Amino acid sequence: MTPIAGGVALNLAFGFSILTVFTLFLHTRNGDQRLFLTGQRLALGISFFVFLATFILAFQLIQSNFDIDYVARYTSLETPFIYKISALWAGQSGSLLFWLFILSVYTTIVILQNQRKHNSLMPWVIITLVIVQMFFLILTNYVTNPFKPTDADFIVTNGNGLNPLLQNVTMAIHPPTLYLGFVGFSVPFGFAISALINGDTSPLWIQSIRRWALVAWLFLSMGIILGGWWAYRELGWGGYWAWDPVENASFMPWLTATAFIHSIIIQEKKDMLRLWNMSLIIMTFTLCIFGTFLTRSGVMSSVHSFTASSLGPIFLTFVFLIIVVSFGMMYFRRNELKSPRKMESFTSRESGFLFNNMVFVVLCFSVFWGTLFPVISEAVRGTKITVGPPFFNQMNIPIGLILLALTGIGPLLAWRKTGRKNLIRNFTFPILTGLSTATILLFIGFRGYVVISFSLGAFVTATIGTEFARGIHARRKKFDESIIKALIRMVSKNRSRYGGYVVHLGIVFMFVGFTGHAFDDEKEFSLTVGETDHVAGYTFELIQLSEAERANHYAWISDLRVTNQEGTFVTNLHPEKRIYFHNNPDPNRRQPHSELDIYTTMNQDIYSIFSGVDSENGVAFIKIMVNPLVRWVWVGGFILVFGTIVALWPRKD
Q: What is the pTM of this model?
């Protein structure tokens, strides 16, 4: 009975969505406030029924109700509790319901936040959000229903279980975080569409969604970083970013959203770039839906994506409608969107922001083209051309370094125009720092993009340090404060500015980590107990090879003793070779998996993979990678998140 209630809840939500759009549209025609209040309550009703359906599916997953096809496919009796919860977004229909659930949470918050303000914008904001809800309700009701009964003529006593790669704590956090970012851009998009329909080209809609855009960007950033962390610690290939199509699907809206967040500062301060900002938020939301299409349609070959399904054409149709309707309205309002002011100087902060935005968009197009080219090639020529990391690295590393340079240049420019004396004064110390760093690196023996990346990192760090030092000095001179007090007061008075600088510092740390990839070293070998092998100046000795049977898998556990060139003990590593569903009588259902182990420092990671075992002869097949500076990526991610929280933290009035 309960699964039927879940299906009924989704049906009722779809019915309420039709009523909501109809009621609010009538309100926009005749201005009857009663219709507006009714539309708001109907919209809240949609969210209520979506919440109910989601909780019912989660309960069925926990209870292992294998009469539901989705539960039988993605859980088993042996699946740990936390992964029964995360199974909610592990499959196609469940993940679409989860997308809808988060959108309903956001819609509810928007309605409750704006009950007594933005009266001219809110009707069309709600209509826009409900139309997006309606699209996902069509999918979950009529295309891929998560409450579909199991199609079997016998009683299903156990399910398939969750993919071992997804049985990782990070994968219980990464998809929801990423979804919170993806779905979050629906709100700024809704306000943008409402502003277009109402012909409201004032900064009001920008002011209404600035915090929403930052929150969505924060979650999307965290989701991407957590995805890299999961890939690095679980997939066993030694990297955290492979330019996989689905990785690119999350990266593209991040690029345009980053450009948007920078660009709206100019519209707020100078009432410029109206048309550009509208284009950026439309592109960002469209790319979020397009990214969902890439993941769910099976059109791209990816470790992340689901199998081929009928969703592809439906998603593409929705993406096409978003583009046509949104940019059609922009064209209709093009005269109102023209900014009254123009750039006054090439050496102004406004031009710096605009150039920064253009580079972000170029990078996004580069990733977009590399991602879709294999599909286009197959459709046109009948042959699928693989576009791998070499293409993306060759195209995007130079663009990324330009962005890193602009991160340092922007804060040194003044609004409207930067005079010659100010240019010399502002740029002297950062440029000297960057050149000094380059000279030292060249003297040591580094070459190529390694020198450029580290030098630009030093340049940006010097810029950020200079900005903080100037602000602290000014406050101490004016208020006679201590350095710590001046720093705290300075940041609290202008949190968006200095929070942004902290984010830029996090980006520098991440670039240092990315550059460390140039020094990676690896080796594969086999060992029996007591044997040793050498990689990158380290000696690896197999001390012990043991076995263990656990709740949902069987494991061979290696004990590797690691020493350095001087023979000093460094650490013990314990990578495992596991067989999930090992008790299943069907050998094809048993799933092998390598559980790696990593010894990490700020300088480098020692990354160990137990790739295979010859249990009869006691031979372990090991792969070792020594990856320099990887921890800088994760530390940079923490700094980025901290800086965004600082920028978001509300000021005390």
A: 0.92
